[in-house]
């Protein structure tokens, strides 16, 4: 996919919407602790805001049972703080994040969690919220920073979110907002790879989580205008093959129902999704058959 | 000040203002051309205020949404997702009229280009063909195909308006083409008609009956005035007839045809279509591509059946004829199958209850404040399922572009819901 054409407003001013994965089921299985991870991320956010005076940062937390806005650098209330050693800049961020994680944990306890379900976070929810915020920025007039979304995700893809995530990706593509993704989990995330490929963003899976700050600042801190001059990781083998609805295996040739577009790997008589019977015309063919029968005694 | 006036096709500008236009400054043009006094209205105390466009826009949008949801009536209506659409453009001498600036022809071409792009965006598996009517004869500009660039190039190639217009010839030609289309596809015709009459070689009523029997859904957008024959055609075949009053209206009417129309179940036979999902060719691999017949390195796709290389998706493999798509193309159409319910308007007076006070300070999507002037709650909407509040602009964005409710997506669903279980 061709790289995103930048809108010619302010040259290298950017608005970074960071989607932070706070899924407790994922964070209990990693080598790096959440607080170490946060220190990398906060240093990165400082770096981004230091690159240009007009840069803005918005942080949205992707939890297990809910999503919420954590920090907005352009709102005035986040600039007050007592500043006891921790820069006043992020004290409100940390407070809100703690509140969010506690609330998320309470909500997760209320719904009984089944252990065999894939522990995925609500990526579609935070992507939708990010896009609504970016749409609001576009509405504010001609002079606005160039927005982009950065997903810091470690949880696995939840297959029930497929349609919602694809809708968000297509909407981002239309708005010309690239979705960068940094995947810190163990397996690969097909959603994030497709998101970055379709919207023209960068996808990267860091090899060593100890050096996360270095990956973040060298790859994800560049604004959209400068990306034309910087050599960023190229997309490697994005798999666009579909999986069949009957067995969930990836296929490279299949059959599509013309009514509901469900994918099957073998020929069926009836679509299991929409119930349409294949190859049969809905119009009654009985009348033509009886006409033929009536003709033969006459001749 | 330049005195040159543009003449198109020998037609002369009838505005006499142009003759007096010499010597007026740029600032005066706002009064001569734009009529800026029309953008003002009086409020209740008699003071002048600029027109509040956002409220009007939102009211229009909600009316449209109500009509659509009333039509769907809560049940999941089948939509024709695989469409074969012919766009018939009338290039008779009526298209050279200048009531649409600069001429009807230019305006039609511009909006049809935008429509073609929007159409392929919303219906990636469908195909478009272009037909023009000139001198009473219908010509095929492009055959049915899935690449927007080919169609736009052919359309912009020759823009000239000549002769009479013939509706019957156009319908005959389109009927001939669409009869060769597979039976699972929905056959549609969109006619952009500027003339006020039609010069036909035979009985147009017979042609209309023929189209009706072949299940062609014909819609007409008129640019001049309402005509009985167009209305009759649309009523017989189940299409939409509308007449554009100005350029903006024409664009809206055209874009209304981009999303798939509700499918009449008898029109298309459900069928299993064999499709291939090609893998991306490895970086640095060299092959001769089958569409351009030249050597290409790297980016491209390989047909899974015959291993031929193609450059772009979706397409039909030129060697073995297999339709090649990628899973995002199919995913583009899923929001037509799973639409989200419209949000409910929150009446301003009753909104001081606890729920509103707790959740309703800021829009859930964009965090914009929902408190209007003077600390009174401003207009907002709420989702029935997740009960979150949204501002009016998010409402429009969510329903027209995003197709996801952020509130519903931010709730954890305990059971793993399969894709089609909604």
Relevant terms:
heterodimer, A: 299 residues, alpha/beta, 2 domains, two-stranded antiparallel sheet, disordered N terminus, disordered C terminus, B: 422 residues, three-stranded mixed beta sheet, 14 helices, globular, vWFA_dom_sf (chain A)
Can you give a write-up of this model?
- The complex is a heterodimer of chains A (299) and B (422).
- Chain A is α/β, with parallel strands linked by helices and 299 residues long.
- Chain A has two domains: 5-240, 3-Layer(aba) Sandwich (Rossmann fold), CATH 3.40.50; 243-298, no CATH class.
- In chain A, 36% of the residues lie in helices and 16% in strands.
- Chain A is built from eight helices and ten strands.
- In chain A, the strands form three sheets. Chain A has a six-stranded mixed β-sheet, sandwiched between helices. Chain A has a two-stranded antiparallel sheet with strand order 7-8. A two-stranded antiparallel sheet of chain A has the order 9-10.
- Chain B has 14 helices and 19 strands.
- The model of chain B is unreliable at 1-20 and 415-422 (pLDDT under 50).
- Chain B is an alpha/beta fold and 422 residues long.
- In chain B, 32% of the residues lie in helices and 18% in strands.
- Classes of the chains: A alpha/beta (299), B alpha/beta (422).
- At the A-B interface, strand 3, helix 4, helix 5, strand 9 and strand 10 of A face strand 9, strand 10, helix 10, helix 11 and helix 13 of B.
- Strand 9 (253-257) of chain A pairs antiparallel with strand 9 (272-276) of chain B.
Percent in helix of chain B: 25-40%
Structural class by helix and strand composition of chain A: alpha/beta
Largest interface: A-B, 79 and 66 residues
**What is the H level of CATH, i.e. the homologous superfamily of the largest domain in chain A?**
von Willebrand factor, type A domain
Distance between the termini of chain A: 66 Å
Total number of strands of chain B: 19
Q: Rg of chain B, please?
A: 26 Å
Mean pLDDT of chain A: 81
GO molecular function (chain A): zinc ion binding
Subcellular location (chain A): Nucleus
Organism (chain A): Cardamine amara subsp. amara
Family (chain A): Belongs to the TFB4 family.
């Amino acid at each position: 996919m061709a790289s995103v054409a930048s809108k010619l407003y302010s040259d290298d001013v950017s608005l970074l919407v960071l989607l932070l994965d706070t899924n407790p089921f994922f964070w209990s299985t990693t080598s790096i602790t959440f607080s170490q991870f946060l220190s990398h991320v906060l240093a990165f956010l400082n770096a981004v805001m230091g690159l240009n005076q007009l840069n803005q940062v918005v942080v949205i937390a992707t939890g297990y049972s809910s999503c919420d806005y954590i920090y907005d650098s352009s709102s005035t209330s986040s600039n007050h703080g007592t500043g006891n050693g921790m820069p006043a800049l992020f004290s409100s961020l940390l407070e809100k994040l703690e509140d969010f994680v506690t609330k998320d944990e309470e909500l997760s306890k209320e719904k009984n969690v089944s252990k065999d379900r894939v522990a995925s976070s609500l990526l579609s929810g935070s992507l939708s919220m990010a896009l609504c915020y970016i749409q609001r920025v576009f509405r504010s007039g001609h002079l606005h920073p160039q927005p982009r979304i950065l997903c810091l995700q470690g949880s696995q893809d939840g297959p029930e979110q497929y349609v919602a995530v694809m809708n968000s990706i297509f909407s981002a593509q239309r708005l010309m907002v690239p979705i960068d993704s940094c995947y810190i989990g163990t397996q690969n995330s097909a959603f994030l790879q497709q998101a970055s490929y379709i919207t023209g963003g960068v996808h990267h899976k860091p090899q060593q989580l100890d050096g996360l700050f270095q990956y973040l600042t060298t790859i994800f801190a560049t604004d959209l205008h400068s990306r034309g001059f910087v050599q960023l990781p190229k997309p490697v083998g994005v798999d666009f093959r579909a999986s069949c609805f009957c067995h969930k295996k990836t296929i490279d040739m299949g059959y599509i129902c013309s009514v509901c577009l469900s994918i099957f790997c073998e020929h069926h008589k009836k679509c299991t999704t929409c119930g349409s019977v294949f190859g049969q015309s809905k119009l009654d063919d009985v009348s033509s058959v009886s006409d033929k029968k009536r003709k033969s005694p006459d001749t | 000040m330049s005195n040159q006036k543009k003449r198109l096709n020998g037609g002369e500008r009838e505005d006499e203002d142009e003759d007096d236009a010499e010597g007026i400054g740029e600032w005066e043009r706002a009064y001569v051309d734009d009529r800026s006094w029309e953008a003002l209205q009086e409020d209740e105390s008699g003071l002048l205020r600029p027109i509040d466009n956002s409220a009007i826009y939102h009211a229009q949008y909600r009316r449209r949404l109500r009509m659509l949801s009333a039509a769907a009536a809560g049940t999941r209506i089948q939509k024709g997702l695989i469409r074969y659409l012919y766009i018939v453009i009338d290039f008779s001498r009526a298209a050279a009229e200048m009531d649409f600036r600069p001429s009807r022809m230019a305006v039609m071409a511009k909006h049809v280009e935008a429509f073609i792009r929007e159409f392929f965006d919303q219906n990636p598996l469908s195909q478009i063909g272009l037909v023009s009517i000139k001198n009473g004869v219908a010509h095929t500009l492009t055959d049915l195909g899935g690449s927007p660039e080919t169609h736009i190039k052919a359309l912009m190639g020759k823009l000239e308006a000549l002769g009479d217009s013939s509706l019957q010839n156009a319908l005959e030609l389109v009927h001939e083409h669409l009869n060769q289309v597979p039976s699972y596809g929905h056959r549609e015709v969109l006619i952009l008609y500027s003339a006020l009459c039609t010069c036909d070689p035979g009985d147009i009523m017979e042609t209309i009956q023929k189209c009706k029997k072949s299940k062609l859904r014909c819609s007409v957008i008129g640019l001049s005035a309402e005509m009985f024959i167009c209305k009759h055609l649309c009523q017989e075949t189940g299409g939409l007839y509308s007449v554009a009053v100005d350029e903006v209206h024409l664009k809206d009417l055209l874009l209304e045809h981009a999303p798939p129309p509700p499918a009449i179940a008898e029109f298309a036979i459900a069928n299993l279509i064999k499709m291939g999902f090609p893998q991306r060719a490895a970086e640095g691999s060299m092959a001769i591509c089958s569409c351009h017949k030249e050597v290409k390195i790297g980016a491209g796709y390989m047909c899974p059946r015959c291993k031929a290389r193609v450059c772009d998706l979706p397409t039909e493999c030129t060697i073995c004829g297999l339709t090649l798509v990628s899973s995002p193309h199919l995913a583009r159409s899923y929001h037509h199958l799973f639409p989200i319910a419209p949000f409910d308007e929150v009446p301003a007076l009753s909104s001081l209850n606890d729920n509103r006070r707790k959740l309703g300070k800021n829009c859930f999507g964009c965090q914009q404040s929902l408190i209007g002037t003077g600390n009174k709650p401003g207009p907002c909407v709420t989702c029935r399922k997740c009960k979150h509040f949204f501002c009016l602009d998010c409402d429009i964005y969510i329903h027209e572009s995003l197709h996801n409710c952020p509130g519903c997506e931010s709730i954890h669903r305990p059971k793993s819901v399969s894709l089609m279980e909604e």
